[in-house]
Task: inverse folding
């Protein structure tokens, strides 16, 4: 019996941990703040082997790496969502590397530079489910090369190459509630979504104040259904939340 246990111990000692995918070259640096109130942020792009994030919080880095639609689904120390603590990432790998593998490389990079300790925890939250009832929709497939660029703002989401996960992330900026992609629609789409920006989420009113006149046009919920053939369904239930138990505020140098 002791001899068998000895052999098992030797075998286990000889095993090595699986190698995690890594970028060929990667730069992750804290942003030096210039005092400006407004700044441009790239929450995450990946194309032809190049992954870029600009002026992003650690929570936003994790959202891109783990394909999470909103900050509400990331928990941890307050500073990971603080806009005053931002980072730039530029990482490169082989141009043919799939996006899914590049995101695994980003997870490795974040783990190593921030010394992360992460776990997943189900929490009961209110959210909107982005759905495609019976698989039906009015979406157009993305063209290659794209016919035009992005145009994002209040009352408008125009994007020539967007996944349903990316669309859910953008919609969540305007609903003030997490949005989860439950469409089961793979691939990239050319999306043009327009709504009356004042007719979406009602603003908070002072006591006794009269509600404003409704805007002339559809709400974001109506626009999603009319223009894209999708639905935003209000739900409440257990949702997977990524919890950061530990992260170094100053990442390891490149």
Result:
């Amino acid at each position: 019996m002791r001899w068998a246990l000895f052999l098992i111990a030797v075998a286990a000692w000889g095993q090595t941990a699986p190698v995690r995918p890594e970028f060929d070259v990667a730069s992750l640096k804290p942003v030096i703040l210039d005092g400006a109130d407004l700044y441009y942020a790239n929450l995450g792009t990946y194309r032809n082997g190049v992954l870029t994030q600009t002026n992003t919080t650690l929570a936003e880095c994790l959202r891109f790496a783990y394909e999470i639609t909103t900050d509400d689904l990331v928990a941890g120390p307050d500073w990971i969502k603080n806009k005053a603590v931002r980072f730039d990432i530029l990482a490169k790998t082989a141009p043919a590397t799939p996006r899914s593998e590049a995101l695994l490389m980003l997870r490795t990079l974040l783990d190593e530079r921030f010394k992360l300790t992460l776990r997943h925890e189900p929490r009961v939250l209110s959210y909107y489910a982005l759905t495609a009832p019976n698989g039906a929709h009015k979406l157009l497939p993305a063209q290659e090369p794209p016919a035009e660029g992005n145009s994002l703002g209040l009352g408008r989401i125009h994007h020539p190459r967007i996944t349903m996960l990316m669309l859910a992330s953008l919609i969540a900026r305007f609903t003030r509630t997490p949005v989860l992609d439950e469409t089961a629609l793979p691939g990239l789409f050319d999306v043009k979504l327009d709504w009356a920006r004042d007719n979406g989420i009602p603003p908070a009113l002072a006591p006794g104040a009269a509600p404003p006149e409704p805007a002339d046009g559809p709400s974001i919920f109506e626009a999603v259904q009319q223009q894209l053939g999708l639905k935003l369904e209000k739900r409440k239930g257990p949702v997977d939340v990524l919890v950061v138990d530990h992260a170094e505020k100053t990442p390891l140098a490149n």
Residues 99-114 form the longest helix (16 residues). The radius of gyration is 22 Å.
